[in-house]
Amino acid sequence: MGSPHAVVLIAYLLLLLAVGAWKTRTVRTQADFSLAGRGLGTTVLAGTLLATWIGTGSVFGNAQKGYQDGLAAFVLPLSSAVGIAVLFLLAARIRRLEHFTIQDILEQRFGVPARLLGTLALLGGYLIIVSYQYRAGAAVLEYLWPDLRSVPDPVSGEAPTSALAICVVAAFVILYTALAGMISVAYTDVANGLLMALGLALALVLVVSSAGGASELLAALPPEDRRLTAYSPARVVSYLLPAFLLILGDANMYQRFFSARDERTARHAVLGMFAGVLLLDWMIIALAVGCAALVAQGVVAPPANPAHAIVHVAFEVLPAGLGALLCATVVAVVVSTADSYLLSPATSLVRDVYQRFLRPAASEAELVTVARGAVVLLGLTALLLAFQASSFFEVALFAYTLYGAAITPPLLAALFWKGATPAGALASMVTGLVTAICWEVHLGDWVVERSGDGPLAEVLAHLDAALPAVCVSVAALVLVSLCTNPRAATAT
Predict the structure, then answer these.
(1) Of 445, 437, 446, which is closest to residue 472 (Cα–Cα)?
(2) Is 14 exposed, middle or buried (0-12, 13-18, 19+ CB in 10 A)?
(3) Residue 398 falls within a domain, yes or no?
(4) 137 sits in which H/E element
(5) pLDDT for 152-172, tens place per residue?
(6) DSSP string of 375-399?
(7) Residue range 179-189: average pLDDT?
(8) In-domain check, residue 267
């Protein structure tokens, strides 16, 4: 069964590389490499926004919750939808700024330290995101070539992701991103988005049919998995807030708005993204729920890892041709997200550090060369991180929290609150980062242990670092800004 899947996947990846190599000849300036020459139209911009956001967090993270928790998981895309609705209001204003990175916005309003801290937060959060994209792609390779799979742990029964498979995926993503940057990424993202929609829709129809129809599929689920309101309020906040914070301050979104042809194009593209994200995310969750139903019916064996539910369907449920299409869909998701989250920190490193402080007079050709080198360096750093954790959903939430709590409050303040001061912005970024890391490492467990056995302990046990981190970040922003001279803030 692996042969058709492998043929389709290899052909697809070679096509992506060919497009990247072809587009390389058009890359002459930093704006070409990082912003596609600021010439993206509505269709291409909507496609690349969609393909960037629907990533491993959806295909593996949301799928994992859909497989494990049933219908309750359909709440997960709502945070993205609300965030995109806010972006619709921001898109034209962002494009009007004519910047390259969000750090340009932070420095213009809050000074050089804000640029540097913003760069640090972006590097930390985004390299974590790239690292689990590598692991996700490696999971697909392990299905294609079972010999790559590692020996299961004798105690837990779980097999670690193959190091060779992770390295192969990392090599492809780094090479593809370094070839032509945003020019190749944006245009192939349109094809990736269409492939996602087609593959998921056809697979969902066949899975529902294999279960005997929608009613039989739902009947096969345990009663608790048929409840839309199964998540507690604390879990809903913990699951939704990190993604909401990320999308409002996501450097990928802003970088694509800067790449738009004009303000009108940026705004219209967000509408396409809104519809596409809801549709694709809900199809992914429905497909994972369908996989759980087929397992309950005994039609298919359970996946070794719940996060691999979509890949499991591609190889174990669907006919070879459709399975190969869904397999290519998963890889399209991984590649689109990985290259975007690798390109953004590379752009930031070149623009916000190299050009800003080391070589202000660097030529356009030099900046493009350094940008390619930054892609390779950061891609290899993400590869090292890929061997540090195996959970998709929890790692995704932490990466979103780390970045969102540090960047989103001061970034929105830079755009909307004239009373925010440089001191307030820096306090917000530092406290957001520190709180997120401390809560994840030890503070969260310490708080739970000392809260007793009552209702509060139950709430705190399911509380992600996002809520305390963003509360502390916003409080620091407001209090420090009010205590410092508001006239120190410059107008946007």
Answers:
(1) 437
(2) exposed
(3) no
(4) helix 112-144
(5) 544 444 556 788 889 999 999
(6) HHHHHHHHHHHTTS---HHHHHHHH
(7) 78
(8) yes
And the tokens for 341? 């989250």
273-310 pLDDT, tens digit per residue, is: 999 999 999 999 999 999 999 999 999 999 988 988 99
> Nearest Cα to 8, choosing from 200, 195, 285, 201?
195
Say which residues have a Cβ less than 8 Å from residue 394's Cβ, sequence separation at least 6: none
- Helix, strand or coil for residue 416? helix
Report how many domains make up the chain: 1
Q: What is the dihedral of CA 142, 313, 191, 258, to 10 degrees?
A: -80
Backbone angles phi, psi at 385, to 5 degrees: -65, -25
Residue 478 lies in a domain: no
How many helices (H) and strands (E) the chain has is answered by 22, 0
Is position 417 within any domain?
A: no
Residue whose C-alpha is closest to residue 342's, from 176, 194, 183: 176
CB atoms within 10 A of CB 387: 15
At 46, which CATH number? 1.20.1730.10
Are 173 and 141 in contact, with CB atoms under 8 Å apart?
Answer: no
pLDDT of residue 393: 62
Q: Domain limits at 64?
A: 2-391
15's tokens: 């096509």
Please name the residues in contact with 328: beta carbons below 8 A apart, sequence gap of 6 or more.
Answer: 8, 9, 12, 195, 199
CB 22 within 8 A of CB 336: no
Find the mean pLDDT for residues 444-450. 55
Using one digit for the tens of pLDDT, what is the confidence trace for 388-421? Answer: 766 666 777 778 888 888 899 999 999 889 899 9
The pLDDT assigned to 209 comes to 93
Kindly state the greatest CA–CA separation across the chain. 68
DSSP state of 60: I
Distances in Å between the Cα of 257 and the Cα atoms of 42, 54, 77, 261 are 11, 17, 22, 9
User: Could you tell me the two tokens for 468?
Assistant: 């305390």
In percent, the amount of the chain with pLDDT more than 70 equals 89
* Global pTM exceeds 0.90: no
Whether 109 and 490 have beta carbons less than 8 Å apart is answered as: yes
Q: Is 246 helix (H, G, I), strand (E, B) or coil?
A: helix
Q: Within 13 Å, how many C-alpha atoms sit on residue 358's CB side? A: 10
Amino acid residing at 286: A
Query: Distance from CA of residue 281 to its chain's centroid?
Result: 13
Backbone angles phi, psi at 419, to 5 degrees: -80, -10
pLDDT band at residue 32 under the 50/70/90 scheme: confident
Take residue 482 and report the two structure tokens written for it. Answer: 């009010």
Per the structure block, which two tokens stand in for 99?
Answer: 């910047």
Sort 397 into a burial class: Cβ within 10 Å, 0-12 / 13-18 / 19+. buried
